[in-house]
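I hope you will forgive my troubling you with a question about protein structure. I am sending you one protein, given as its amino acid sequence and as whole-number tokens for its backbone shapes. Thank you for your consideration; the sequence and its tokens are set out here:
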Amino acid sequence: MDSIVVGTAGHIDHGKTALVKALTGHDTDTLAEEKKRGISINLGFTGFQLPNGRTLGIVDVPGHEKFIKNMLAGATGIDAAMIIIAANEGIMPQTREHIDILSYLGIQKFLIVLTKIDLVEEDFKELVIEDIRSFIKGTFLEGTKIVEVDSVSRTGFDMLISELETLTSDIRERSFTKKPRMNIDRVFSVKGYGTVVTGTLMEGILRTEDELMVYPQGILTKVRNLQVHEHNVDLAYAGQRTAINLSNITVNELRRGNTVAAKDGVYITDRIDVRFSIVKSTKLEIGKFYKLKLYTGASEEVARFVPITHKKVKAGDEGYAQILLDHEIAVLKGDRFVLRTISPVTTIGGGVIIDPKALKYKNDPGERLRSLQIKDSASDKEIVEEYIKNNPFSDFSKISAFLNKDIKEEELKELEEEEIILSIEKQYIHMEYLAHYRYMLEAVLRDYHKNNRLRKGIPKAELLEKLDISNKKQCETMLKYLAAKNQVKLEQNLVSCCDFEPVLTEGQKKIRDELKKRVMENGYTLLTAAELTENRKERQQVLEFMLQSDFLVLPGQFILMEAQYKKAKDLAESLFFEKGIIKLPDFRDSIETSRKFALMLLERFDQERFTRREGEDRVLNTKK
């Protein structure tokens, strides 16, 4: 890995900025107020080259309690951390809080740097070191190397550089194959260039002219220029501190906490499922909907905490929760977060996001917990299965984005071969979802057939409403699939069970014959449905049955037989070949009816494009 990012952490005035300047030759205090007050308010960025040739980027974060949110913004995305402790003061309140924050951010590489050793006697320094070792005993920092330095004389710096090289030698390379993503921790304008944002490129590769989206706003922009450690580059890689000059966007449209990423490269959400842990030092008890501040990436948002594994969360507790945010954030599965109280402000806990697009829970608590445990720590195969179960009709890109891992589409085929999931039109559903859908579908169809024994099937639009599935397009896709598998009949927009056929009783057959006879006797002097059925329910049901095969209906509810209609078409065709035109009076006389009914039939011919109008007359659309 060519570029590694190391962050500093520690109490105010413990020498973080002086240490960075002595290491790199650069002063990271850039604001006038920082120079004046002698403390870091904003984030400082610089870097230098290790003896092995790798670039070590350094994020110098503020130590003052009021500026901890800036520290959080800088600490996200770093690979390792130097915990700075001044020899003349030892461990202080912000030292403890910074260490808590670093643990929640998932950083696993640490170096403790004891600064200002020139200001204390040897005996006092040893007492401070003893105190540090006692403090970290039994924690994730136990065994961490302590390096002693003086930033003014540069005493101990050869050892510090050597330890940094050793510390970072086996840091895993970040993914270059994922879509690019960077959390914005600074926004400013440069004269002649325009809007610039900075951060650590979390994944992927960025190129000049790449199109990006600013989240959560959804603003499309383009990379005009790239810098890595103040040098113009054509490419920026995951793990590098990067400055992006963006086009077509103003400083006022951006803020720290936004994310720049490829289109569809992150989830925009206001509800996340998380695994959390709470600091052991708190006396606070956190119940359902307790308000906290959530920090993830470089964003800071007010959130409501909903414990799932606990009724009330206390010091040292670990478990699962759902977090509801006041505003949307851009995140992915596996992102780390920190929780802080609103007043008084203090770090209370943190954890990892296990579902960035969490659902409202309606199922029982046991099922909810089982689902969370799978999404948190199961194999990729089990996580994919659980995701598809809860998110039917997801395509491969959505599944891959949820996992936030580089997976191949072939990996889903094993689940298909085991008949756990099913692919329909390149979208995946779980077999449990298919079974549930078929159960609902069959229940609706059986009920419909029971109450409508003479109808061939339920109209598709009516079925979709009865199924009460919000996504009608997905519902139609399922219908087509089941019809193709002969598990349901789909004919002329009517849906029915495969084994259903409308059958007339002996009494209904007599009514059918009577209706046919009456229609035939009337010829083309048409009767309405009401006249034909005399508004009697059983006759209406038989007529409705016959409209599916024997009869058709014209405007005004006028009824005629399909055979009559075909005969009328044949007569119109004969007139055309005899006279080269179809005139209304001639057609009326040929079918022996009134002008009204003749015109009604001709207009039906026009609608079917059997004929077309030319003035008051008609011609055939296709000559024979």
Notes: The chain has 19 helices and 32 strands. Confidence is low (pLDDT under 50) at residues 29-42, 63-67. The longest strand covers residues 318-331. The longest helix spans residues 431-451.
